[in-house]
Amino acid sequence: MFYDRLTALGIDATVADFVSKAENDPVVRQAFGHADDIASHNQLKVLYAMQTNRLSDAHFTDSTGYGYHDIGREVLEDIYAEIFRAEAALVRPQLISGTHALATALFGNLRPGDVLYSPVGAPYDTLESVIGIRPAIGSLAEYGVGYRQTELTDAGGFDYPRIRKVLNDEPRIKMVTIQRSKGYAWRPSFTVAQIEGLISEIRGIRPDVCVLVDNCYGEFTEEREPIEAGADIIAGSLIKNPGGGIAPGGGYVAGKKEYVERAATRLTAPGIGGEVGPTLGMTRALLQGLFIAPQTVGGCIRGAVLTAAVFARLGFAVNPTLGETRTDIVQAVRLGDAEKVLAFCRGIQLAAPVDSFVTPIAAPMPGYADGVVMAGGTFIQGSSIELSADAPMREPYNVFYQGGLTSAHARAGVVFALDALKKEGLIKL
C-alpha cells in the first residue's frame, strides 16, 4: 500500500516496485527486526535514566543570562551521564555542532607540547581545520599541539604494529581520538566492540592517555556506547541522533568528570566552567528529543538498510553492505559519477517536507576542502537525524545518506532518490 500511494506523488511505478521487492528480501527484514530490538533496548535505557533522576515538569522551566541554579540543565546532564555510563556530562545549546563539541573537548584537554594521535586515519573534514591539518586561524597547531595519525589497513582494520610503534615512540601523546563513524571516508564505521579492542590495546601500552571517541551518528545504534568500551570521553551533536529531531540545537560532551570539566572551562571561562549557561527555554525540547531518539534512530537504520539493498541490487558498491553490523546511521553509496550524485541529492530534496522545491547544488562550505552538495529540507537547519544526503564533489563520487524522522519518511527518501536517477536516464531498472 505504501508503494502504491507513492505513484500518486509522481513516482515511476517501476521504481516503487523495485524498492518494494528489495524491502521484502529476507535479509532486509531480518535487519529491520534487529534495528527494532536495539531501539527497544535503548528506549528502556532512556526511560530508566529519566525515572532514576526523577525528571519532573519543574525541570522544564528556562533560564536566561548567567543561567545560575538551572535545575533543568542539571538533571538533563545527569540523565545524559546515566545513559552514556559517564561520570559527568556537559549538554548545552551553546555547543552549535558536533565539530564544536569535539573542539571544546580537544582544546579543553590538550596543552602546548602535547600530541593528539588518531590510530584510525584522517578525521572528518571539518576537524582538519580544528587540528591544523589544513591551516586555520586558532587551530590546535597554532597553539603548539602536535598531531600524528596511522592509516587503516587496506582491509579497513586497525594497523596494530604501527599503532604500537607510535605509542611507544611518541611520549608526548596526551590524547587518542577515535572517529566512530566513517564520515566522508570509504571505510567501515567502527562497532563498539571494535573500539573496545582498540582501546584495550592502547591501554596496554599507554594507560596514561585520554581516549576521546567522536560519537557523532553513532548514538543508540547499538546497545552499548563507547564509554562502556573504555573511552574516557565522547562528544556529539544534538541535531544528530540524541536530539531525536526535536532538539533545536546543541551538543554534548560526556565521560570522566575531570575531562568534562576541562571541556566546560573551554566552553565558558576558567573559574566558571559548567556552573553557568542559560538553557533559554530549550530544556523540554532537549529532553523530549532524547526520549524519542532511540525510535528515531531505529527508523534511520531501516532507511539505511533499504538504501544498501536497493543500490546493491543495481550493482553499486555500498558501505556498509547489507549483512554488516550497523554502528551509525550513515549509508554510503559509490555512484562513481558527479551527475549521479547530484541527481540522488535532488531526489532526497524532492522528498523533503521543507524546501522540497529547492534544487541542491555543489558549493563551498566552511570547514570542507571540496565543494559539497547537501540535500535536506529539514525543520532544524543542518539536522542530519532528519532525512538528508550529502557528498563532497570529488572522485570516486560517494554519496552519504542518513536520517529520517520516521521510518516511512526514510523509506520514501530511498524511493525519491532512485526515481530521480531513473527519470534523468542515469540508471536502468
Summarize the structure in words:
Helices cover 40% and strands 13% of the residues. The protein has 429 residues and is of the alpha/beta class. The strands form two sheets. It has a seven-stranded mixed sheet with strand order 1-7-6-5-4-2-3. Helix 6 (125-131) links the parallel strand 2 (115-118) and strand 3 (146-149). The two termini are 21 Å apart. The mean pLDDT is 96.
Quick overview:
The protein is α/β, with parallel strands linked by helices and 429 residues long.
Helices, strands, pairings?
Elements: H1 2-7, H2 13-23, H3 26-52, H4 71-83, E1 88-92, H5 98-109, E2 115-118, H6 125-131, E3 146-149, H7 160-169, E4 173-179, H8 192-205, E5 210-214, E6 233-237, E7 251-255, H9 257-267, H10 283-313, E8 317-319, E9 331-334, H11 338-350, E10 372-375, E11 388-392, E12 398-402, H12 407-423
Parallel strand pairs: 2-3, 2-4, 4-5, 5-6
Antiparallel strand pairs: 1-7, 6-7, 8-9, 9-12, 10-11, 11-12
